Amino acid sequence: MSKKDPETDAIRTQTPHTDQREHSTPLFLTSSFVFDSADHARALFANEVEGNVYSRYSNPNVDEFVQKMCQLEEAPAGVATASGMSAIFSSLAGLLEQGDHVLACRSLFGSSHQILNGILPKWGIGYSYGNIDTPEEWESLIKDNTRVLFLETPSNPGLDLIDLEWAGQLAEAHGLIMIVDNCFATPYLQKPMAYGADISLHSATKFIDGQGRGIGGVIVGKERYIDEISFFTRHSGPALSPFNAWLFSKSLETLPVRMDRHCENALTLAAFLEEQPKVEWVKYPFLPSHPQHALAQKQMKKGGGVVSFNISGGYEAAKQFLDRLNTLSLSANLGDTRTIATHPASTTHSKLTDEERAAVNITPGMVRIAVGLEAIEDIQEDIEQALG
Questions:
Q1: How far apart are CA 165 and CA 194, in angstroms?
Q2: Considering the entire predicted model, what is its pTM?
């Protein structure tokens, strides 16, 4: 790995030039690759030599994207997948066996809950949830068959944080594989492996792409675990398309610049929302009022591009607010150049019970704003008029 800054590597790394001498990496839209000889084909399948066989296994565009993510996360190995959820599922399914147990933070994305609650138990894999605000209880939740510590920080949509240094020490003490969903922070703002994580994963659909164009996921981490996960993805098939990998790889070249603007806008908006009379509370990691503000400053470079707040009046008030927006988009996505408003309780986390949502502070009046790159004055003006 180069001694250059990881951000420089992420810009300069690309596939070897073809005889066309292109400056930007071309698209390799091919399902398969040809072999020099029968023995070359045999050697490729026997893993005696490196090379491309089939785009479900590897592809130059996908490989370039993975290399850049490894550089940004400062991880030795990685694998890309067709979506963020396939990255989460592949990490768990590729490492766990029947009879294993997962300890996870309770504050997770809705589909992550569904994997733990509804899919893995079919295969005899159990789970327990630890509350972010009671870390002292987590040790008691670890069982003899616990193999994975699965975390998401900052959490979606509550923006709660987990102390990664503490979690790394916990995982090391009990021999657990520590997996961190680093989607909200991106590798520009947070590097979980520096605190003891074994795997860091992302929905590349979000800030990594940054423009709402493609769906994909990526997993990076320690080589022995990536090898197991790669075996699973190679044979179960959640392959990232070369075109989307090409998009994501180009997007990584502007990730630091974009995230700086996302964070600047988000912090300004969070402070603005605290002054609005119809807003009961605001959550943003770098806002001084955030209960884990000091932790955010310790393990994150900046606060990220997402702000959550609660409108007085519950669901009806939140619904009216969303319907009054003119400039902001009403969508379930995030990480776009365009600011997006979402009502988690009725969309992304609607499959949770009322009790499960309450346990992670997803209230009926909560709105999640994925702050885009527009002029902050225009974002604030639209929100202010929608609040009435």
A1: 9
A2: 0.95
